[in-house]
Amino acid sequence: MKARKVTSMLCALALSVVALAGCASGAINSAQGQAAAPAEQERTEAAPAEEAAPAEETAAADENAPEGDPIRLGTIYAMSGGNAAIGANILRGIDFAVAEINAKGGVLGRPLEVVRGDHAGDPATGKSEAERLITQEHVDLMMGCHMSTVTEVVAQVCQQYGVPMITAISTLDRLTDADHEDMDYFFRLCPLNSVYVEDMLKYLKDSTEQTGEEIKTIAIFTDRAAIGQELIRCVNLFKDEYGLELVAEVDYTSNATDLSAQVLALKDANPDAILCDSYIGDATLFVQTLKAQNYSPKMIVAKANGFTDPSFITNLGSIANGVASVVEFNPDLTNGVEINEEFNKEFGVDMNGHSAESYTVVWIFKTAIEAAGSVEGEAVKEALTNLDIQGEFPGGRKIVLPYDRIKFENYELAGEPHYRDNTYASVAIAQIQDGAWKTVWPFNFTETKIAYPAPLE
């Protein structure tokens, strides 16, 4: 990701795995169709085969069938409300991993079983769902929650009950800062907001190599909620280092119905590039309003979220062309080709960063439980603390994200301590071209060139 000062070397039994080739980057869904996720189901089942398997394959599958009481994996994502589409896509990644693992014999010979909770975008609901899953459904593990404010309160509940939790995609820096040092049942796979944003600024500076025009001024368009404030904070943290002038900060209230005033403010500021962070409804309305106001910024770079939702391109059609975003996975990169083909066959939609990261977390839990030899909370927590996956998962495929190592560490970032983050997490930039996401940066990972200025048509 970048140089970091490790403040606490995590030792004991490291789960080292021989590193394989593979370092891709980015993630996004080409959104060529949306398959309904089984969000209404509280249990995950392996998908039926399309054709009857030969008798010997069926017998082999029966021999591998896990037995005993299931290991219960709690998930808390939005399955209703304005962010349900994001939740559905995350759950696809979880379902895919669970079916894959159960087909290989489960974990410690036991099947994985998913128990779903719906936070509906509300922290209080997320807290009550976490308490329900732990005290009534008796889940052994927890995943969530894609909205960092919800993740924070769910992590507190998991800490209280000693239930190990991994967030696949909550990027708010403060989730692992000094105030959360003692939250030792909570781990984060994805990069922090600071890392996402710094990579966005690196991309702007590097783009000159292809476009011939230097990006000098930037503006921010974002939600007034926590995600937006983090974008503003991180841009201000790094902008001077990259020689960029911030000419406007334009925000709005979530689930907006009219963004005309915000777009006019951006048009008046006339930045060389606009940096964005919005959930799906607001991201869609933003681009629609740009067209309505006849405003075409030269560059639009998003910090994922709604801009990478499977429905974004479907909602907008050709006017989405030119929008760029930070990505955590992309089907056009080496690590993503094989798994994306299988995923698309199952769900009728490409894997994106959210589904790839949630898929990865299920495999992390499997690896940790097998190292611990138990699903007891303290033992799994210690296994996660000492985990070091390099290249591929034991008994699974290579890491499908744009890095080849996963290790949770304590370290310093921009002079601030953080705890139990995956310090090897990294991202890339993709751009919508001809209705599909194409990785465009880092340049050495792709042959696709930046479409500049952004056509929005």
Structure description:
The chain is an alpha/beta fold and 457 residues long. The chain has two domains: 5-191 and 333-422, Rossmann fold, CATH 3.40.50; 194-327 and 428-445, Response regulator (Rossmann fold). It has helices at 55-64, 84-103, 123-135, 148-161, 193-206, 208-211, 226-238, 260-269, 280-292, 311-316, 337-347, 353-372, 377-386, and strands at residues 5-8, 71-77, 112-118, 141-144, 165-167, 186-188, 217-223, 245-252, 273-277, 299-302, 323-327, 388-390, 405-413, 416-422, 428-433, 436-441. A seven-stranded mixed β-sheet has the order 8-7-9-10-11-15-16, sandwiched between helices. Strands 3-2-4-5-6 form a five-stranded parallel β-sheet, with helices on both faces. Helix 3 runs parallel beside helix 4 (148-161) and helix 12 crosses helix 13. The longest helix is centred in the first third of the chain and has 20 residues, at 84-103. The chain is globular and about 65 Å long. Residues 1-61 have low confidence and may be disordered.
What key phrases describe this protein's structure?
disordered N terminus, Rossmann fold, 13 helices, 2 domains, 457 residues, seven-stranded mixed beta sheet, alpha/beta
